[in-house]
Amino acid sequence: MKLFLLVGHIGLTISSLTEFTNIQCKTLDKSVAEFEYCYIKAVNRTYKYISLKVKMNQLPITTTKVNIALLKRYNGYKPFLYNYTVDGCRYLENPDQNPIAKYFGDLYLPFTNINHSCPFNHDIILEKLNIQFLNNHLTKVLPFPEGDYCLSMIWSLNNARVLIIKTYVALSKIAN
Ligand SMILES: *[C@@H]1O[C@H](CO)[C@@H](O)[C@H](O)[C@H]1NC(C)=O
Ligand SMILES: *[C@@H]1O[C@H](CO)[C@@H](O)[C@H](O)[C@H]1NC(C)=O
Ligand SMILES: *[C@@H]1O[C@H](CO)[C@@H](O)[C@H](O)[C@H]1NC(C)=O
């Protein structure tokens, strides 16, 4: 986000910068699915990305629910703005119906192999979700205040709680 501020008579441009600080992926129910890998890779200072793969142990997947919660660090991570459960299969049929789910869906889906209607008959891959994209999306599409955030996603597949993904990002503003 470029925000034009007038400080006295001096123009000052504020840009936002997002950094991945951590990712945690936890399998809760191996009988349905499990993480094969999940990592942040820093290619260089500006090119960082997240990749993950979920191996399915039960197919097909016919129902999905995703609990999406945003947390912000104050004195420990506290709930911030959203805590919301989406019916994944219904969402994929009609993403425009639900603006909040669409916002988070637009963050992840372009980098996955799950942007299609249910059922799922294959493993799930998130390939190289890069920080520039996230930066753009988080700061230009919906401006958030500076701080440390955690996006928590709890995935239920075929009615079992199966996966938790926590993505940690730091958001800062730079004046230039
Ligand atoms: C960082 O790596 C990407 C991908 O390899 C490359 O396109 C980009 O030019 C690199 N940037 C710097 C500053 O080296
Ligand atoms: C969001 O709300 C649900 C249901 O109240 C709760 O189980 C979950 O722990 C909350 N998520 C976070 C990250 O606080
Ligand atoms: C998902 O796929 C549909 C149909 O191909 C496409 O119109 C939409 O832009 C895709 N959504 C995302 C978030 O990639």
Q: What is the structure about, briefly put?
A:
The chain is α+β, with helices and mostly antiparallel strands.
Can you walk through the features of this model?
- This protein is of the alpha+beta class and 176 residues long.
- The chain has a single domain (18-171), classed as Ganglioside GM2 activator (Ganglioside M2 Activator Protein, Chain: A).
- 15% of the residues lie in helices and 56% in strands.
- The chain has three helices and nine strands; from the N terminus they run ββββββααβαββ.
- It has a six-stranded antiparallel β-sheet. The chain has a three-stranded antiparallel β-sheet with strand order 3-4-7.
- A hairpin with a 2-residue loop joins β1 (3-7) and β2.
- The longest helix has 11 residues, at 131-141.
- Residues 1-12 have low confidence and may be disordered.
- It binds 2-acetamido-2-deoxy-beta-D-glucopyranose (NAG) (3 copies).
- Residues 105-106, 109-110, 115 line the site of one 2-acetamido-2-deoxy-beta-D-glucopyranose.
What are the defining features of this structure?
15% helix, Ganglioside M2 Activator Protein, Chain: A, alpha+beta, DUF1091, six-stranded antiparallel β-sheet, MD-2-related lipid-recognition domain-containing protein, three-stranded antiparallel β-sheet, 176 residues, single chain, signal, binds 2-acetamido-2-deoxy-beta-D-glucopyranose
